[in-house]
Amino acid sequence: MPDSLTSDPRRVWYPSVDDIIFTNFGVVSLGLDDKHPHRLLTRPNSIQAVLDHVRESEAQGVTYQAAQLMSELVRLHPFAGGNHRTAYIAACVFLKRNGRQPRVERFKDGYVFIKDLQNKTVQQIREWLEYGSTEESQREDHTRNH
After folding, report:
1. Who's near 35: CB < 8 A, 6+ residues apart?
2. Exposure winner among 64, 109, 124, 130, fewest CB in 10 A?
């Protein structure tokens, strides 16, 4: 069966609930710093509600949707551990499957931003995914350098 991207390039690919759960399993299986085993803390239909909400904002564009996916997954906190990393990886896969490239590709380059996602707006996350920084961080860099 052909990939949805090759069969209709205008069609947006969306992750499934199982994709999100499997991503978290991979994240916590790496054993980087989580003290929590892979465990779902919410019902799968809560994750589906996030995915449905992301799908509803298709007119905003895939970068916005990726940012929304990150924001809403972190706020939902569906897993015992690895929620921020899961949200970031899910958003990167979403972008790549839809022909976009996140500007911040190396996880360690964005870890500080990712750890603070719950305090970021969808617009700030979108800017970060698209440009590798936000207007706010660019202003802070400019202030530090002058």
Report:
1. 81
2. 109
